């Protein structure tokens, strides 16, 4: 086996600065197209206005709720703010959703959620308070306003009838009424990307971008409202809005064809959604382990690795988890015995948080690509889907009270 032969086989996976700059240029072009109603259908980026326009200042006070629904468990959280960032307190409970609630009538599902909310506020003795709630709903939606989102399609095993095409905020509000809960006001519906930005902005008011790097990937950012030609809301201050890019789909219009490798094509062709979510398939935690498995199998088949001998674990699609990649990169060069063990063991991890080099590699490459006068830093968001949702509720409640006072 020649190391030069291995490097040559892997070379298509190594992008030059020129290629990365071209990718960024194409991302910006897709963003511009997606913000224009006349060209939005030409873009692979949906560029969805979230209707979240104000960022937290750190001076917010009060108790605020969050409901985080995106899988077979959901969480209810309450944060207590006293106007100082350092003293933000959080209490939370996790509730399981059984199979029948996932596939039965949607009223039953939302009634159960409302019952859990009622139990939560009773347990924490806040049933007498007026509570603003931020609703993180991690399913495909068409967002119409800060408190209005139509469910396009259930995913993740949910099939609750009577919900698709309906406003999920109205479904939750109706369930709260049926359960006799009168002190909770849904102030916002959002996804976890927006929550990530808000949770970080609470601690760092210069934060303008939220990025998800986990099982999937997505980003959002604060955009000048003058550039959002798709905006249908009121044009007043602040002259900005958070845009959800849905950039996991970048490349679906062919923008990434010039860097796509044989490994990417194999993973895409055997996926559940060929030709869709191409960027996500190149970089997210759900697929990185599989990319490595496909690369290893290719090297083995070419006789460049393991003397051409495959293993049962490597032969099975998606059986080489991304967490193995993180652990292997954490090991020193003299840990070959442990690397062999990884092929028969299971370890746990998450892409950005646990990969030993992801953050440093991002920082190094961003520094190389952007003008030297530009400054940036990366900060790990704490509980964007939960804490961030409650902060959106806090900001929305504050904005509402301010506008009422002005009138």
Automatic annotation (TrEMBL):
Domain Hexokinase C-terminal intervals: 209-345, 347-395
The keyword tRNA processing belongs to this UniProt entry's keyword annotation: no
Leader peptide range in chain numbering: none
GO molecular function, one term: D-glucose binding
EC top class named in words: transferase
Reaction(s) catalysed (UniProt annotation): a D-hexose + ATP = a D-hexose 6-phosphate + ADP + H(+); D-fructose + ATP = D-fructose 6-phosphate + ADP + H(+); D-glucose + ATP = D-glucose 6-phosphate + ADP + H(+)
Pathways per UniProt: Carbohydrate metabolism; hexose metabolism; Carbohydrate degradation; glycolysis; D-glyceraldehyde 3-phosphate and glycerone phosphate from D-glucose: step 1/4
Transferase recorded as keyword: yes
Pfam families in the record: Hexokinase_1, Hexokinase_2
Hexokinase N-terminal domain ranges (all copies): 6-202
EC code(s) of this entry: 2.7.1.-
GO biological process entries: glucose metabolic process; glycolytic process; intracellular glucose homeostasis
PROSITE patterns: HEXOKINASE_1, HEXOKINASE_2
Family label: Belongs to the hexokinase family.
Name of the protein in question: Phosphotransferase
Organism of derivation: Strigamia maritima
Organism lineage: Eukaryota, Metazoa, Ecdysozoa, Arthropoda, Myriapoda
């Amino acid at each position: 086996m020649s190391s030069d032969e291995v490097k040559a086989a892997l070379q298509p996976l190594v992008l030059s600065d020129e290629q990365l700059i071209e990718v960024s240029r194409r991302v910006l072009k897709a963003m511009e197209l997606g913000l224009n109603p006349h060209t939005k259908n030409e873009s692979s980026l949906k560029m969805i206005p979230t209707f979240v326009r104000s960022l937290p200042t750190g001076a917010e006070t009060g108790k605020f709720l969050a409901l985080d629904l995106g899988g077979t468990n959901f969480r209810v959280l309450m944060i207590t703010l006293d106007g100082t960032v350092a003293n933000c307190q959080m209490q939370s409970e996790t509730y399981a959703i059984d199979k029948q609630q996932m596939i039965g009538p949607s009223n039953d599902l939302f009634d159960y959620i409302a019952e859990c909310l009622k139990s939560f506020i009773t347990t924490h003795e806040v049933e007498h308070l007026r509570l603003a709630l931020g609703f993180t709903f991690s399913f495909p939606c068409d967002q119409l306003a800060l408190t209005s989102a139509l469910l396009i399609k259930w995913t993740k095993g949910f099939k609750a009838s009577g919900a698709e095409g309906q406003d999920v905020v109205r479904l939750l509000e109706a369930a709260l009424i049926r359960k006799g809960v009168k002190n909770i006001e849904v102030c916002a519906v959002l996804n976890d990307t927006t929550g990530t930005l808000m949770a970080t902005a609470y601690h760092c008011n210069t934060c303008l971008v939220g990025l998800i790097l986990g099982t999937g990937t997505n980003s959002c950012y604060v955009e000048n409202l003058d550039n959002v030609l798709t905006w249908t809301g009121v044009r007043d201050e602040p002259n900005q809005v958070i845009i959800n890019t849905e950039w996991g789909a970048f490349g679906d219009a062919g923008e990434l064809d010039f860097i796509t490798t044989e490994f990417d094509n194999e993973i895409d062709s055997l996926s559940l959604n060929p030709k869709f979510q191409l960027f996500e398939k190149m970089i997210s935690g759900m697929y990185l382990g599989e990319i490595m498995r496909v690369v290893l199998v290719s090297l083995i088949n070419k006789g460049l690795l393991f003397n051409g001998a495959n293993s049962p674990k490597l032969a099975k699609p998606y059986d080489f988890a991304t967490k193995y990649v993180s652990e292997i990169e954490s090991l020193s060069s003299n840990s070959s015995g442990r690397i062999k063990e990884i092929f028969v063991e299971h370890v746990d991890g998450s892409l950005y948080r646990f990969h030993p080099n992801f953050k440093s590699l991002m920082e190094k490459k961003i520094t190389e690509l952007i003008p030297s006068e530009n400054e940036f830093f990366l900060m790990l968001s704490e509980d964007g889907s939960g804490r961030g949702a409650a902060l959106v509720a806090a900001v929305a409640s504050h904005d509402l009270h301010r506008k009422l006072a002005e009138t």
